[in-house]
Amino acid sequence: MPRLQKNDNFIDKTFTILADIVLKVLPTSKEEKTAFYYYRDGMSAQSEGEYAEALENYYEALQLEEDPYDRSYILYNVGLIYGSNGEHSKALEYYHQALELNNNLPQALNNIAVIYHYQGIKAVENNKTKMSKKMFNKASQYWQQAITLAPNNYIEAQNWLKTTGRKYQAEEQL
C-alpha cells in the first residue's frame, strides 16, 4: 500500500486527491483510514482487471473496516470479482453478506438475479425444466426487489418480467 496507479485518468486522479484530503480532515481512526486506502486500491486494481490484487486489498479492508455500510460495499465488490470470474456460488455468498449489512443495494439484488437467470438458461439448455423454472422465479423475485429500490433502473429486467408474466407473480409474493 499505496498502489501505484498505471492508467490513471483525470477523474481517478481527482478522486484520489479529494479522498486523501477528506480523510485528513475527517475525524476518523487510523484503522478506518487504512481500510479506506485498501478499499480505494482494491477499486483501482479491479478497474484495471487485476482481480487477485483487488481481492487482497478488499480482504485487508474487511479486516480493518468496522462500519457495516462501508463493509457492505467492500463485500459487494468482492462479489463482483467472483461473478466476473464465473464463481457464481462465491459471488452469491458475498452479495448476500453485503445485503445483510445494507439492504439498500439494488445493484447486489440485480446481480443475484442475473446469476439466477443465467442458471435458468443453463438449466433450459440441459432440459431441466423444474430447475429452470425455479431459477427464473428466483431471478424474478430479486429483480422485483431491485426495481422497487431503483424504479428507473434495470429496464431489460423490467421488460423480461413483463414478457414472461413474472412481474405480477413477483408483486404478489412480496
Can you describe this structure in just a few lines?
The protein is an all-alpha fold and 174 residues long. It is built from 9 helices and no strands.
Task: Give the oligomer, counting copies of the same chain as homo and different chains as hetero.
Answer: single chain
Distance between the termini: 45 Å
**What low-confidence regions span 5 or more consecutive residues with pLDDT below 50?**
168-174
Category from helices, strands and their pairing? mainly alpha
What CATH calls the topology of the largest domain is: Serine Threonine Protein Phosphatase 5, Tetratricopeptide repeat
How many domains would you count in the coordinates?
A: 2
CATH first level of the largest domain: Mainly Alpha
**What is the radius of gyration computed over CA atoms, rounded to a whole number of angstroms?**
19 Å
CATH superfamily membership of the largest domain: Tetratricopeptide repeat domain
Q: What is the string of SSEs from the N terminus onward?
A: HHHHHHHHH
Major pleated sheet = none
Kindly state the percentage of residues in helix: over 70%
CATH architecture of the largest domain: Alpha Horseshoe
Shape: elongated
Keywords: Chloroplast, Membrane, Photosynthesis, Plastid, Repeat, Thylakoid, TPR repeat
Family: Belongs to the Ycf3 family.
Membrane topology: Peripheral membrane protein
Subcellular location: Membrane; Plastid, Chloroplast thylakoid membrane
In words, what does this structure look like?
By secondary structure, the chain is an all-alpha fold. The protein has 2 domains: 10-91, Tetratricopeptide repeat domain (Serine Threonine Protein Phosphatase 5, Tetratricopeptide repeat), CATH 1.25.40.10; 104-167. It has 9 helices and no strands. Helix 3 (51-64) packs antiparallel against helix 4 (68-84), helix 5 runs antiparallel to helix 6 and helix 6 packs antiparallel against helix 7. The radius of gyration is 19 Å and the shape is elongated.
